[in-house]
Amino acid sequence: MKIFFTSDCYFGRKLTAVERNFIDEEDMMESYIESWNSRVGKNDVVYHLGNFSWDPLSCEAAMIHLNGKISFIGGLYDSHLPEMSLIKIGRHHIINNSIAVLPEHNIVMSHWPLIDWPGKSEGSIHVHGGDIPMSLDEKRFNANINNWNGSPIEFEFFKELIDSQTP
C-alpha cells in the first residue's frame, strides 16, 4: 500500500478546466482520472486536501472511477461530500478536522498552507492544497493536482526531495 496526496481537482468546474488549458470540464475529468489511476493502485491511500469537486454530480462521477481509498480534508467547495454514496458506504471517508496528523509518517495535512504547524520545529512535513508555493527548506509541500501533472504525488517522492536537501 502506498500513500498519496493531492488537492484542488475541482471536478466539474468549467472555469478551472479552461484556466488549466483543457477543452472543458469533461476533458479535465477524463485526464485527471487517467493520470490518477496510472499512479494509484486499488489498495493505495489518497489524502485529498480540499476542493475535490464543484458539484455533487461531478463528485459522484469522479469518485466511482478513481483508484484507492480516499480520505478527504474538506475545502471551501466540498460541502456536498458527506452525501456521496461511496462515503456513505465507507469506501472513502471524511477527516472531520481542518488539520490532520499522520504521526507514523511525521506529516501534518491541511487544505490551507500553514505558517506554523504541529511539530514544525522537530522536522514534521506539512502537505497542503491551495495556491501557495511549496518550500523545501520548511518541509512544506503543495499537493495541488495542477502542480503535479494532473496526478496525486506519492509520499516517498516528498521524502526523497527532503533527503536531497539535507546536507
Structure overview:
The protein is of the alpha/beta class. The chain has one domain (3-165): Metallo-dependent phosphatases (Purple Acid Phosphatase, chain A, domain 2). The protein has helices spanning 14-19, 25-39, 56-63, 85-88, 155-165, and strands at residues 3-6, 45-48, 69-73, 93-95, 99-102, 107-110, 125-128, 140-142, 153-154. The protein has a 5-stranded mixed beta sheet with strand order 4-3-2-1-9. The protein starts with a strand and ends with a helix.
List its traits.
single chain; 167 residues; alpha/beta; Purple Acid Phosphatase, chain A, domain 2; 5-stranded mixed β-sheet; 4-stranded mixed β-sheet; 5 helices; globular
Model regions low in confidence, pLDDT < 50 over at least 5 residues:
none
Specify the CATH homologous superfamily: Metallo-dependent phosphatases
- What is the mean predicted local confidence, pLDDT? 91
CATH topology: Purple Acid Phosphatase, chain A, domain 2
For the termini, the CA-CA separation is: 30 Å
> What strand order characterises the main sheet?
4-3-2-1-9
Global Rg: 15 Å
User: In CATH terms, what is the architecture?
Assistant: 4-Layer Sandwich
Order of helices and strands: EHHEHEHEEEEEEH
The general outline is globular
Overall CATH class: Alpha Beta
